[in-house]
């Protein structure tokens, strides 16, 4: 065992070993951050999420340079929508639902252009991409097995949206015993008030389900 690295975080310093840590990049897909996708069909201003792209690019570069494992996720459904619960399908604006044709292909359907990860954050060779039908990255995916096989015990979590897929994933990861650090400028919400509250909820009560730090603190710890 090597000396763990430490990141100045809320509520306390976050300590991690690069070899047993993975950077999780949640749902940085066109469907959420570009016009014409799932996020916009729900009435959201998708430009609000674009602020995470630059810090996340820097974070990805530092993570890759340090040899820390990177795992991306994508929310989406099979073309026949058999993995989409009726409750999820029925929700949202009736004019544009999951599976409907949009400017980037069928909304939130695997294999469509809109389902893809944005070019700026595209996975590179050797990085795992987990397709998930739900908000959490463990539900009906192989993520748990991937992490166990790699001996991962700590997760550095980024992506969108803070209060939905990031929260669902971090809460479950915490229940499964992972130590989770959420990078505050690398997660984004369509709602500024949810961003602030979502981050505060994670580190409150002595870190009830994780730690929060700016990405610069994590990048500094790696270098
Ligand atoms: C949502 C997500 N918000 N990736 N998905 O539906 O947070």
Automatic annotation (TrEMBL):
Residues 21-207 form the Isochorismatase-like domain. One of its GO terms (molecular function) is hydrolase activity. Residues 79-103 are annotated as: Disordered. Pfam families: Isochorismatase. InterPro entries: Isochorismatase-like_dom, Isochorismatase-like_hydrls, Isochorismatase-like_sf. Keywords: Hydrolase. The keyword Hydrolase applies. The keyword Nucleus does not apply. PANTHER family: FAMILY HYDROLASE, PUTATIVE (AFU_ORTHOLOGUE AFUA_2G08700)-RELATED (PTHR43540:SF9), PEROXYUREIDOACRYLATE/UREIDOACRYLATE AMIDOHYDROLASE-RELATED (PTHR43540). This is Isochorismatase. It comes from Amycolatopsis vancoresmycina DSM 44592.
């Amino acid at each position: 065992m090597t000396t763990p690295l430490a990141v100045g975080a809320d509520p306390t310093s976050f300590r991690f070993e690069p070899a047993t840590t993975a950077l999780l990049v949640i749902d940085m897909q066109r469907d959420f951050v570009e016009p014409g996708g799932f996020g916009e069909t729900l009435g959201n201003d998708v430009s609000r999420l674009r602020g995470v792209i630059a810090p996340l690019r820097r974070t990805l570069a530092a993570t890759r340079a340090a040899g820390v494992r990177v795992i991306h996720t994508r929310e989406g459904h099979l073309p026949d929508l058999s993995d989409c619960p009726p409750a999820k399908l029925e929700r949202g604006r009736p004019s544009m639902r999951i599976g409907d044709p949009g400017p980037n292909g069928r909304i939130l359907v695997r294999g469509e252009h809109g389902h893809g990860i944005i070019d700026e954050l595209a996975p590179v060779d050797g990085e795992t991409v987990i397709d998930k039908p739900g908000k959490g990255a463990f539900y009906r995916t192989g993520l748990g097995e991937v992490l166990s096989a790699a001996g991962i015990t700590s997760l550095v979590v980024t992506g969108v949206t803070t209060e939905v897929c990031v929260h669902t994933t971090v809460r479950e990861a915490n229940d499964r015993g992972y130590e989770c650090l959420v990078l505050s400028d690398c997660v984004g919400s369509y709602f500024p008030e949810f961003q602030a509250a979502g981050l505060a909820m994670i580190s409150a009560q002595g870190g009830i389900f994780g730690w929060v730090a700016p990405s610069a603190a994590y990048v500094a710890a790696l270098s």
